[in-house]
Design a protein that fits this description.
Layout (H helix, E strand, L loop, with lengths): L15 H17 L4 H16 L3 E8 L2 E9 L8 E3 L4 H8 L3 E3 L10 H4 L6 E7 L6 E7 L7 H64 L9 H17 L4 E8 L2 H8 L1 H18 L5 E6 L2 E7 L5 H17 L8 E8 L7 H16 L9
Antiparallel strand pairs: 1-2, 1-6, 2-3, 4-5, 5-6, 7-9, 7-10, 8-9
Helix pairs in contact: 1-2, 1-5, 2-5, 7-8, 8-9
Amino acid sequence: MNLAIHPTSSSLPEPPHLKAMQELISVVQELSLARNLETIMAIVRVAARKLTHADGASFVLRDKDQCFYADEDAIAPLWKGQRFPMTICIGGWTMRNRQPVVIENIYGDERIPFAAYQPTFVQSLAMVPIRTLSPIGAIGVYWADPHSPTAQEVDILQALADTTSVAMENVQVYTELEQRVQDRTLELELTNAQLREEIQERKRAEALIQQLSITDDLTKLNNRRGFLLLADQQLQLAQQANSPTCLLFIDLDGLKQVNDQLGHEMGDRLIVDAAQVLKQTFRESDILARLGGDEFAVLVPRCTTGKQPLDRLLANINLFNRAGIRPYHLSMSIGVALCSANQTTSLEHLMTQADQVMYDHKRSKRSPLEA
């Protein structure tokens, strides 16, 4: 017995148009993910050629009254990078007439610019507009041998072009959105930078106010408030570290006499000179202050006897007086109080001690106006 085996539906060859539709769906998915025109053109140039079994494909953009052949995929070079007037180009004809065009023999169609086609392999072509309502470009496919594409191939090519127009519009929307995000981000960055600058300016102003509140205007030394604040902190740190500290209480001799005889401007000059001598004598880590009027104070950390800073100060006073640059001699009454290692005392107590020592020696001082 002979049994005839009939092919099942699963063994039948897949219709060409069905396969093309499946490929088109895959291309649509790729285009949906495209975020720039370059990606769209790279997808479309390959897909157009594959879907129509063509030897070449070109992606044409409308540039005002010209056709710009922006990209291509072909067995030999076509017109990539070139521009042609809309009126003499098949891409232009497609866009102006908003409909596909099929030309089986390019040499038998008066719409063909033969000078442009003669160096190429093209014998037949099909061209469809990208967006039929208001075309923004065209997709062309080309064959090296005479060829007549089927209506289904032209329809699929047009479907690809329609999908391409949507992808291009999406890219435009995405680009505009991205630009708005960038603009907004830049705006926020500029605003934040301005806020940071305003904060820094406010901090600088606050620091200046703070500095002014603890600084003596005339000498630029700490004022009484600044000295009490900084010296108290330094004294506490020294006591925690069991480090000796000394405090000098200084009274500038003869300020009233200089004011009376030479004027207040020269009296201010005497105060400034005294402050300058103090700055030259002591270290940056020492805390100097003009307490007010003719009174100064210096806190000297890591000071065991007070003799060294006192000797340096007296030597610098002598150097100033020998220079003879002022109509007065600089003279200071100085008292020293010590806080030895492992001793605890207050800044107020040290100042009282040094003040008392200073007054005990003040009577022996000569007038700063004496030679």
